[in-house]
Design a protein that fits this description.
heterotrimer, A mainly alpha, B mainly alpha, C alpha/beta, B: mainly alpha, MetI-like fold, 10 helices, elongated, C: alpha/beta, Rossmann fold, six-stranded mixed beta sheet, 20 helices, globular, ATP binding (chain C), ATP-binding (chain C), AAA+_ATPase (chain C), membrane (chain C)
Chain lengths: 325, 278, 541
């Protein structure tokens, strides 16, 4: 059926995109000025001859280009992302250890921003040309224009330093040894600031999008039909306008997933959240390019995952796909 | 109604324009008001705002004048925003035009290529590009352009797709105009208004991207930028909040102003098209 | 037929409706009074901009934003509808007054099943439980004659045809047996044969249920088919109001007379002879298949747009290509001007093979066949002055700019738009733009002009003027014309020869008079019978 076909196509496409990213990484290393081995080793490893020799061997840097490409691609395909010299651990292990924290943060922020954004956007659409609607839109514009990392810093100043309400750093209280529910609560408390600051920007986007989409849908002919039936305005808003307005929002949400992973890099950096974003910042500071490229690959994979999920949801929401012959 | 009259009807757009002009004036006046390099240490470090004359915004961790940094930073932000947007347009407009006009296999190939760039997380890609090319104004501009052209290509392609079968375009084909003439004279002029609106929003996004890169330490080490100022003050946020506060406000105002102007342009440019169709 | 002594069901008294500031006039409807009686069909007729549907929208409480009633009353069952609150109005809508709209393709919610959308009407007025609502919906779908109602009730709108969707709309509007049905151009977007069926359905249901129908249309043919009484509107005012028979036969107002005369009414064309016998355009066994690639959202499909199409056109002759939507008539036109490339067959113009030309060679020969397009609003580039729009072609073919511009001025004068060459398209009306489109085609001095639904988007009175202009140009310049249209009345007026198409094939072709008077094929007869108002006019003739 169409829906199954859609999913299969999406998965195939995901594989192709991931493959292209591997090649992209390879090209990037080749294009960079200087010795690729030295670049991969980064500043720190540049002095260590043994490490450079290992890298040259792994990538076959003395071999022709296509052999190098083949080694690189097959390495990544076997999930071998190499070794981080600075952290003295395989890149894959480093990333996998940090992945759950990032999933928790971006997942929470995603759900939060989508939910609040749709609610705020629907309210603004229903109150178009009224002061309350304008205020919602002004706030959305403000959040949209505010640099994420700056909101993060300012919220640390306000909520941790001055009000002392919420923890500013990390994912849990170090040394407290919480378990079970206490641990969940502790993590939850640490999650509030990073998740909210990350969600704000995206909430602003979804609010603007929902409003525009609802206003668009309310111009459609079927809304007039619904009114001609004698339906209540609230029913028309919910059943006819919002349902149709949600389709483009789902598409947009998928597209924004990539931005969210990028935003997580900044949020995790400010809040010392132990995810792959923070890891990326560390790799950046240590000029650990091998690790950097590994994280880059994984963040792209994460985005593709988000995209597939939104496609599945879209397919379920639109009968033209679900029941199309 | 003239274009400017329609633009001025939107009060937000006017406010945005005024803020923007102020920031442009700041950028121009920076070398006159603060002829010294913003990197020079001129007072004791951690001087709070409004304490010493000539240092309205205080000094930073190294005793550098925050006000001077802010004004010189305006120039960097605007420059990078404008140049990277221009480069992104130079990539996106021709790609989108060709894909939309010719369709078929060319379109398929170009759109797969564009989708690929849209799937990669923007910011992560920009980080990797700048890190590997080494931070400099050029690498930052290139990285921002590389991550921001796909929406341009998609917009232009969509416009071309809907216009290429418009009857006046078909009429132009029937009288024997060449493809190049049709693209440049018949279709492109009719896609300009959405491109202008998008471009104004892209400048805003580019400024945000640049500040985020500088914040992470990927700024050009030779120029003072707002993102760098916030990043450098991050670790001392508990002692000196103002070091991060003012540059952040500057970014916020610039991006806000550009968005307001973009919305105003949208209002001013689009009713005309709507009227022509009705 | 109607008892004028009885109390009217709906009575409009001096109703005025104001347009928002900046519109082309202050009032959409000015001081309008008319009654609708039980058991009658009242047609409100007018061209675009006459304000014909505004009063109906006011009655429903569905006026567009910014438009409001500024005076008068609409008495329905003792209460003034114009004074009702939104809540009071809501209890009437769907229950006592039903409404159907012009665009069946967009008037249904694409994300809801048909059954659920009908059941909503009962829900809105708190009637029946869930099971009963579905049963009622099924009964309604059966009543409006939807094939396979058991399946249709579970279908989404995209799975139904235009005619079926309009039947669903009618089922919805009639669900609670309203006393008044308002039908706002319900057949305008449909093919003639479907239109005839829907008109019959509405008349049938109206008689069976004895309800009142307020039928809004621009088409006097439709009026002749179903109206008991007619209300003719122009610029927001009533021009004429009376019994349908009387108004159609003896219109008392000049405007009504002009409208009725503007309908190409003599469905029997005169016999005309071609000037020469040399074939200009020869089409033999033409085929064209559209293949849509299997995208993510739809499987691969093949549509045979043209199958084995053959005909020829003699110099100075006008051939009408007639058919409903999907018949392939437009594809045929686009193949002849080579906006599309046929898959196989022969297409030759004065002996030159026009089918295999490509690239630069095609570009050089293009001037020989030109086209007049359907949509006057899309056929001119909004950014080019009309003089330049006409001169572009000759310039692209090597004429000097000065000469081409001078020629453009002459042509504008020829089509009746003297001295307008430095204006932009938005300064012209639809009919004027169509004249500019004709001038643009003439500028290339083509051997053949293809007119693709060239008058379909225009009001009847404008339509008549454009047809007159074409007729005049034909005489003056001995043009050869391929006239593509869905409207047989128009074809009858201008064509020497008729080609009838269905599903990509030619069903019948022959001299226009023969095809109209003695159609050989069943489909042609069906098309002719479906022309609204035909019987009426034949009786007149």
């Amino acid at each position: 059926m169409l829906y199954v076909r859609l999913i299969t196509m999406r998965l195939l496409k995901a594989v192709v995109v991931l493959f292209m990213i591997i090649i992209f990484n390879f090209v990037l290393i080749q294009l960079a000025p200087g010795d690729p081995a030295a670049i991969l080793a980064g500043e720190a490893g540049a002095t260590d001859e043994e490490f450079l020799r290992q890298l040259r061997e792994r990538f076959g840097l003395d071999q022709p280009l296509y052999v190098q490409l083949w080694r690189y691609v097959s390495g990544v395909a076997m999930l071998d992302f190499g070794f981080s010299y600075r952290q003295q651990m395989p890149v894959l292990d480093l990333i996998l250890a940090r992945l759950p924290a990032t999933l928790l943060l971006t997942g929470t922020a995603f759900v939060l921003s989508l939910f609040l954004g749709i609610v705020a956007g629907s309210l603004a659409a229903a109150r178009v040309k009224k002061p309350s609607g304008s205020i919602i839109m002004a706030l959305a514009l403000l959040f949209y224009a505010t640099p994420l990392f700056w909101v993060a810093l300012m919220s640390v100043v306000l909520f941790s330093v001055y009000l002392d309400l919420l923890p500013a750093y990390g994912m849990y209280t170090v040394g407290a040894g919480h378990t079970g529910l206490a641990l969940v609560l502790d993590v939850g408390k640490h999650l509030i600031l990073p998740a909210t600051t990350l969600a704000l920007f995206f909430m602003a986007i979804y609010t603007r999008m929902t409003r525009a989409s609802m206003l668009d849908a309310s111009q459609q002919d079927f809304v007039k039909t619904a009114r001609a039936k004698g339906l209540k305005n609230s029913v028309i808003q919910r059943r006819h306008i919002l349902r149709n307005a949600l389709l483009p929002i789902i598409t947009l949400a998928g597209l924004q997933a990539g931005q969210m992973v990028g935003g997580a890099i900044l949020t995790e950096t400010v809040f010392a959240w132990p995810g792959i974003g923070r890891l990326m910042f560390e790799a950046l500071q240590q000029r650990d390019y091998n690790l950097l490229l590994g994280i880059f690959f994984f963040s792209a994979a994460l985005v593709i995952l988000f995209n597939i999920i939104t496609d599945l949801v879209y397919g379920l929401a639109d009968p033209r796909i679900k029941e199309g012959s | 109604m003239s274009f400017f009259a329609r633009f001025a009807q939107n009060r937000g757009a006017l406010i945005g324009l005024i803020i923007l002009l102020t920031i442009i004036a700041m950028a121009i006046l920076a070398p006159l008001l603060f002829p010294e390099s913003p990197w020079r240490m001129v007072q004791r470090p951690f001087l709070p705002p409004m304490e010493v004359d000539g240092f309205p915004l205080g000094t930073d961790t190294m005793g550098r004048n925050v006000a001077a940094g802010l004004m010189h930073g305006a120039w960097v932000s605007l420059l990078i925003g404008l140049v990277s947007t221009t480069v992104a347009l130079a990539i996106g407009v021709p790609l989108g035009a060709i894909a939309g006009y010719y369709g078929g296999l060319i379109d398929d190939a170009l759109m797969r290529f564009t989708e690929f760039f849209q799937t990669i997380p923007n910011f992560a890609l920009a980080i990797v590009l700048v890190a590997i090319m080494q931070p400099s104004i050029t690498s930052i501009v290139l990285a921002i352009a590389i991550v921001s052209w796909p929406p341009v290509a998609r917009l232009v392609r969509a416009e071309f797709l809907s216009l290429r079968n418009r009857e006046y375009v078909e009429a132009a084909r029937l009288v024997g105009q060449s493809n190049t003439t049709i693209i440049l004279r018949q279709i492109l002029p009719n896609t300009l208004s959405p491109i202008i609106v998008l471009a104004s929003l892209m400048v805003a996004t580019a400024i945000l991207l640049e500040s985020a890169l500088s914040f992470l330490g990927l700024g050009d080490p030779n120029v003072m930028s707002w993102g760098y100022m916030i990043g450098a003050a991050r670790t001392v946020i508990r002692q000196a909040w103002w070091l991060s506060f003012f540059p952040g406000v500057a970014i916020l105002l610039t991006v806000l102003a550009l968005n307001l102007v973009g919305e105003g342009l949208d209002d001013a440019l689009n009713p005309k098209l709507a009227r022509e169709r009705s | 037929m109607t008892d004028s002594q009885a109390t009217p069901l709906l009575s409009l008294r001096n109703v005025s409706i104001a347009l928002p500031k900046g519109a082309d006039r202050a009032l959409a409807v000015e001081d309008v009074s008319y009654d609708v009686f039980r058991g009658e069909i009242l047609c409100v007729v007018g061209e675009s901009g006459s304000g014909k549907s505004m009063a109906a929208n006011a009655v429903m409480g569905l006026l567009p934003k910014g438009v409001y009633t500024s005076g008068g009353e609409a008495i329905f069952d003792g209460q003034d509808l114009l004074q009702l609150s939104e809540k009071q109005h809501r209890t009437l809508r769907g229950l006592r007054i039903g409404m159907i709209f012009q665009e069946p393709m967009t008037a249904l919610n694409p994300l809801m099943r048909v059954g659920a959308q009908i059941a909503e009407v009962f829900e809105a007025h708190g009637q029946f439980n869930g099971r009963e609502r579905q049963q009622k919906a099924l009964a309604l779908l059966t009543e409006v004659g939807i094939p396979d109602p058991d399946k249709a009730i579970r279908a989404y709108p995209f799975q139904l045809s235009g005619g079926q969707r309009q039947r669903v709309m009618i089922a919805m509007a009639l669900a609670l047996e309203p006393e008044l049905l308002i039908a706002d151009e319900p057949t305008t977007a449909l093919d003639v044969t479907t239109q005839a069926q829907i008109l019959e359905l509405i008349r049938d249901l109206q008689q069976r249920r004895g309800m009142a129908v307020m039928f809004i249309t621009h088409d006097f043919g439709v009026v002749a088919e179903i109206a008991n009484r007619v209300c003719v509107m122009r610029y927001g005012q009533i021009v004429e109001l009376g019994e349908a028979e009387a108004v159609l036969k003896h219109p008392s107002h000049d405007y009504t007379r002009a409208l009725i005369e503007a309908i190409p009414s003599d469905v029997i064309p005169e016999a005309r002879g071609a000037e020469t016998d040399t074939p200009l355009l020869e089409v033999v066994g033409l085929n064209k298949v559209f293949r849509s690639k299997g995208g993510l959202f739809k499987p691969a499909r093949e549509v045979h747009a043209l199958q084995d199409v053959s005909f020829s056109l003699v110099k100075g002759e006008t051939i009408g290509i007639v058919g409903e939507s999907g018949s392939g008539k437009s594809t045929l036109g686009r193949c002849v001007v080579r906006l599309e490339r046929p898959d196989s067959g022969t297409l030759s113009l004065s002996g030159t093979d026009f089918m295999h030309l490509q690239g630069e060679a095609l570009r050089r020969e293009r001037h020989r066949v030109q086209m007049i397009f359907q949509d006057p609003y899309a056929s001119l580039n909004p950014r080019h002055r009309v003089g330049y729009a006409i001169a572009q072609g000759p310039i692209a073919n090597g004429t000097s700019k000065g000469q081409a511009m001078a020629k453009a001025k002459e042509l504008l004068a020829l089509v009746g738009l003297d001295g307008t060459d430095d204006r932009y398209p938005h300064e012209f009306s639809g009919g004027q733009r169509q004249r500019i489109g004709i001038a643009r085609a003439l500028a290339m001095q083509p051997e053949l002009i293809v007119a693709d639904e060239a008058v379909s988007a225009l009001d009847v009175s404008i339509q008549a003027q454009i047809l007159e202009l074409l007729e005049e140009l034909k005489q003056k310049l001995s043009l050869s014309l391929l006239f593509i249209t869905h409207d047989l009345r128009v074809a009858a007026q201008i064509c020497d020869h008729i080609v009838v198409m269905q599903h990509g094939r030619i069903v019948e072709q022959g001299p226009a008079r023969e095809v109209f008077l003695a159609p050989r094929e069943a489909y042609t007869r069906e098309l002719l019978d479906a022309i609204p108002g035909r019987e009426h006019e034949l009786a007149d003739a």
